[in-house]
Amino acid sequence: MKVVATTRSAQGSGASRRLRRTGKVPGIVYGGTATPTTIEIDHNPLYHSLRVEAFHASILEMEIDGKSEQVLLRDVQWHAYKPQVMHIDFQRVAADQKIHMKVPLHFMNQESSPAVKVSAAIVSHVLTEIDVTCLPGNLPEFISVDLANLTAGHPLHLSDVTMPEGVTAVQAKENPVLVVATVKGGGDAAEEPAAAAAPAAAKAAPAAKPAAKK
Questions:
Q1: Helices (H) and strands (E) in the chain, counts
Q2: CB 64 within 8 A of CB 45
Q3: From CA 50, how far away is CA 86, in angstroms rounded?
């Protein structure tokens, strides 16, 4: 994805307010061997780009005054109550240096999983994105999580997911739960049939005879 920007020389909050009134967004590009560059970007194209998931987890091509470089989106500041971008930060990337990014998870085959089809369980996505580290060329737009074999009462952990080549998960918790499937009513799927069978077994059992008096 491409971002077109121009350098800006005016600094300070007053200059930023004037810039926003003209439909521009103040921003900065930092990192790498170059000095930080203050930029301005047209608001409307940027606003629509920010609504695209890939814009947040992809290497972006930024054109500044006609020169291109690769960057990552690092921070966005929004207006308190209006759909307006107030400021935006980008980081330069180098092809031979690893980056640290949050990547979204895309869940697949949930409706066809045993948890849903057999147990009618409620599937909850505990995490919807994970931190990864990799070279820029290996950065995925998303990571697929296949739920085809998900069963109720057996959470899916990060270790159950195959990471793309060259990508390593970096999480504060060693092996976090990504997905859980819970049967309505709070019981485990395997426990429900047993619980239902118990009363039936009790009814079928003959009543105990009272002990004979001596």
A1: 5, 13
A2: no
A3: 13
Considering the entire predicted model, what is its pTM?
Answer: 0.76
Residues 129 and 105: beta-carbon distance below 8 Å: yes
What are 36-47's pLDDT values in tens digits?
Answer: 999 999 999 999
- CB-CB contact of 96 with 115 (8 Å): no
**Residue matched to tokens 């504060």:** 172
| Radius of gyration for the alpha carbons in the chain, expressed in angstroms and rounded | 27
Q: How many CA atoms lie within 13 A of 173 on its CB side?
A: 9
For residues 176 and 161, give the distance between their C-alpha atoms in angstroms, rounded to a whole number: 11
* 53 neighbors 106 (Cβ within 8 angstroms): no
Q: What is the DSSP letter of 153?
A: T
> How far apart are alpha carbons 53 and 24 in whole angstroms?
22
